[in-house]
Amino acid sequence: MVKFVGLLLLLYAIMSFYSVNGKTHHHTFVVKSASYTRLCSSKHIVTVNGRFPGPTLRAQRGDKMIIKVYNKGKDNITLHWHGVKQPRNPWSDGPAYITQCPIQPGKKYTYRIHFTTEEGTMWWHAHLGWSRATVHGAIIIYPKRGSLYPFPHPRGEFLIILVVLITAGEWWKKDVMEIERNATITGGEPQISDAYTINGQPGDLYPCSKPGTFTVKVEHGKRYLLRIVNAVMNYKLFFSIAKHKMTLVGIDGSYTKPFQTNYIMITPGQSMDVLLEANQHPSLYYMAASSYFTISDSEFDNTTTTALLQYDSNDPSPPPLMPHLPAHNQTQAATRFTKKLRSLASKKHPVSVPLTVDTKLFVTLSINLVNCSTAKPCEGPYNTRFSASLNNISFIMPTSCDILRAYYYGIDGVFEKDFPSKPPNAFNYTGNDLPDNLLMPDFGTKVTVLKYNARVELILQGTNVLEGDNHPFHMHGYSFYVVGWGFGNFNPRRDPLRFNLMDPPEQNTVGVPRNGWVAIRFRADNPGVWMMHCHVEDHQNWGMKSVFVVEDGDDPQAKILLPPHDLPEC
Questions:
Q1: Which of 207, 255, 456, 518 is exposed most, by the fewest CB atoms within 10 A?
Q2: pTM above 0.85, yes or no
Q3: Cβ neighbours around 483 below 10 Å, total
Q4: How many CB atoms lie under 10 A from the CB of residue 314?
Q5: Cβ atoms 19, 144 nearer than 8 A
């Protein structure tokens, strides 16, 4: 009896420990080449553990993970844990040459991840060039032990990853790394993808793809949670399910006020949680995704990827029904969806929006051009090279040392602390026929230094330089509150009067509308070096990125952790 009571006390102590401190999960990631067949042909792609998409990581809020990464591929690699705040630990954030040097072929590095306030769906991906096209996977963070979802409990869960592939051309039939290298050399736009995919499969509207079409099996009358990640390289997507409504309940690892919708619009980098009621006649229904693209004179992948929703029934099924997806350029449809996003803002899931700010930043987002020599013209417009900028600064990536190491050890010459807090010259940002002198950016490795605990308001202003575009903007190390957005030029007197400071959505990636603006607020309470960038891979590669350096606070718990012993060398 005494032994039994002792065992119970031990089990209670273990459960109490995990409820307070969380559990530590251990994983091994081996980066290696693997052969995959899509669209009637085969090719080798970079994978983690030979899987495409890569392994799904599962944890509960408050847990930790230790992930040992072995690079057995032929190219450098790093991994980023998209949306995970990594408090005080930028050493494990992952962007190459920002917080670490790459893991070279034959080398290894251990990432240490801590899930603190995140809850819901996020994802991980490579963060060096186009390797993320095939090196990515989902992260599912369940409620803390003893807690429940703040919405009706689902019967089951399905993970949906929307992917553009690169084998036969986002699936590209060609080698994606070669496509990236070629675009870098020529200065033009990369080749568009040959297919979108759902969970690695293009779906039966593409050639040679019907047998592998991903299928979700459901029972009539049950409720399901779909976890959706847009891992596409360059395109925003509309997603819908034939004859079924969805209820959005989460975005980017945070809960939202539920609302019903026939479709979602999800940008590259975003993740969303939706509830699905299996309440239709038992049959086959298509789940489908296609691009949301608003540039009139550019080529884009206008194909549609599908998966199947199959009810558990013995009755023969007719051909699956196709959902109605908004047209590719339907900005009104994208806007109708986005404006419904609100934080849950409940007692258990409160918001902490900075109501006043002490640091204001105004940042323009532009697509630019750079002249090439007449002897060797480039393949961008007018024989130029594509570029991109924030406040007219096109970011130059360091190569001899990463920025975090340079900041931590005081190494000079790696970066400059003078990123402008506003555009160097004000102009009609979204006007037509802008002057040609705006096309050429300046270049530099410039960062913004923030005081610890600064209350920051950041206005992201799209421009019509060269041509306006949608920009999904992602911030490392933080989530932020989207307090306002609109079209045209931000008006500093009128627009703040309409800010939502009660229940704005909490996100880590936000879509800046074409020729529009977004206002975000956050408290700079996570010391370290944190990247911010457009999650359209082309734009990021062209220089649409920068870095926040958040200084240490006075308290020992407000300082960057010590660097790990196995930090890769450049």
A1: 207
A2: yes
A3: 20
A4: 5
A5: yes
